[in-house]
Amino acid sequence: MPDFDGRNPAGWLYRISRRQVRDFRNRGWVKYIFNRGRSEQPDDLVSSEGHPEVCLERKQDRRLLSAILAKMQSDRRTAFVLFEIDGLSGEEIARIQDVSLNTVWSRLRKGRKEFFEVAAKLRRAYEDDFPAPPGAHRKAGAS
């Protein structure tokens, strides 16, 4: 707010909105990875004992997530996990890490970027190791 000079309020609000939407989408994707298949109601829970493919998929997802997080810089990883997964606020993370709020936002921004870069590298490596069979088509936009 102190940097706002008042010349272009529409542009200023647009950039804020754009960043908020981007952050919301990124958080949604990460939360989806962690919460996929979970249910709030105990009666809605389905036993996975009869579904080995579901167990395998979850195990692979956890292994992939662990691999991505392990490659991230420690302070960024901590801020990322506390915010995206544990749902803590920036202020709470600042207190936990004993840093300024601006440092938290910086670590979170860099952590998100690092997370998606590492995920993309791992995906490319996987696709190189396990190419699609002849005649199979990859999704549009996949590298």
Instruction: Kindly provide the radius of gyration, computed on alpha-carbon positions and rounded to a whole number of angstroms.
Output: 19 Å
Helix count, DSSP H or I runs of 4 or more residues: 5
What would CATH call the homologous superfamily of the domain at 60-129?
A: Winged helix-like DNA-binding domain superfamily/Winged helix DNA-binding domain
Low-confidence stretches: 139-143
Question: Which architecture of the domain at 60-129 would the CATH scheme give at its second level?
Answer: Orthogonal Bundle
Molecular shape = globular
CATH topology of the domain at 60-129: Arc Repressor Mutant, subunit A
Major β-sheet annotation? none
Structural class: mainly alpha
The CATH class of the domain at 60-129 is identified as Mainly Alpha
- The share of residues in helices is 55-70%
Count of β-strands: 0
Order of helices and strands: HHHHH
- What's the mean pLDDT score? 77
| Termini separation | 40 Å
Percent strand equals under 5%
